[in-house]
Amino acid sequence: MDSSLLARRFDERPSPADFSSKIEPTNVPAVFHGAVKEWRAITRWNPFDGGLDYLEERAGSAVLEAMLSRSGHVFYGDIRSHERVPISFSTFITSCKKFLQTSDARSTSAPPAMSLATSACLEDASSDILGELYVAQVPILNLEDKERCPLRILAEDIQTPIFLQTSTLASINFWMNMAKSRSSTHYDPHHNLLCMVSGCKKVILWPPSACPILYPMAVYGEASNHSAVSIEKPDLSLHPRAVHYEESSQKIILRPGDVLFIPEGWFHQVDSDDLTIAVNFWWKSDMMSNMVEHMDAYYLRRILNRLVAKEMNQTLHEQTGGSSMEKYQPCSEATEGNHGSDHYKLRDNPKENGKSNGILQQLEPCGLDMQNFPRTLEALILYMLSPKGAEVLTRKFDEMDQQTNKEAQAEFYRLFYSVFDDQFAAMDVILNGKESFAFQAFKNVLDNYAGVHLGRPNK
After folding, report:
1. What is the mean pLDDT of the segment spanning 351-363?
2. pTM, whole model, 2 decimals?
């Protein structure tokens, strides 16, 4: 991973000015060790030191929605893999106490099935439900829906970190799991400050640029912010780019009092130990809020244009062994004005100057007299030019145009198109091939970044 994307670590809390001007705008994660160690919640909520009794006394009567997983300890964002079930907080706390009393509560790596006693307390759930409960994203504060904050009473045990005091919060949420659990890989549409209260969490992070590796769900789906890659065992036959799943990530360990800033759009997966408690703060970033509505179509087109260009360069890089065309250097022999009648050949020594150059970089002007070259060129262009070849050819034209004056350019194109009996047919073949290459890159972009599979439209 690019070193500029690695999470920065701070042993001291930043000021609001430093956070808003030096940390938040970079949109790169940051860890603040011990930033909330003074919270009363750190001691009062500790499940291993009377915290369960305290939580039951303070908020046991609250009825909240817990996430019930049908895939054991893994909680996938896809609604087909879990459901939200109403449960009293006291019932959940009672289950936690029973779990804590078991002899292997702190050592087991396989979470137990939900007890029948617990499942019987779930409204609208049959008594034979087996699975795992996770009190996930239960509001302590919700500015969008103030009526639905079942754990509002716990707010007195926490404080908004000082460096967020100038941010406009969207919500503060409570997270608690009974046994070891794992959340699926996903990103959030808000900035996220994850504060560890009790236990330990391992957070794995990927930058937004890792989208192609993570295969995001379709944008029109209800779980569009989640990865389609199985986090337990990626199926490389289905998601071959996921082979880079781990090497493109970074891992952060959070302990009580630690805080992790997860920027908007960053993919993250969270592994939680037994009986962990966390609080997170969500707030809207300026990244999207400053985008004015009447410019939406322009923003979208610019983003797609950038991604398509990147995909085209990457395709050429992978298939030719060269770097992106904008980095190609013209041959030293190609001086101004001599391009008009030159042809191209492959260098005899592609590793010249100690560098292994791709095919595109191995082309250089040559004055060889090839008697049958015009007819061969015509056949190659009209009948054998691939979309990739059309893109390479037009990029070489662009490169040449940057190195010659207008007169030399005009002479070159006059000679080039004079080879063809129908120069307009040749131009159509080149442009159609170039557009086909760009269209394939566009399809790849939609597939990689948006999860949309597009068939070629009818003309």
Report:
1. 40
2. 0.76
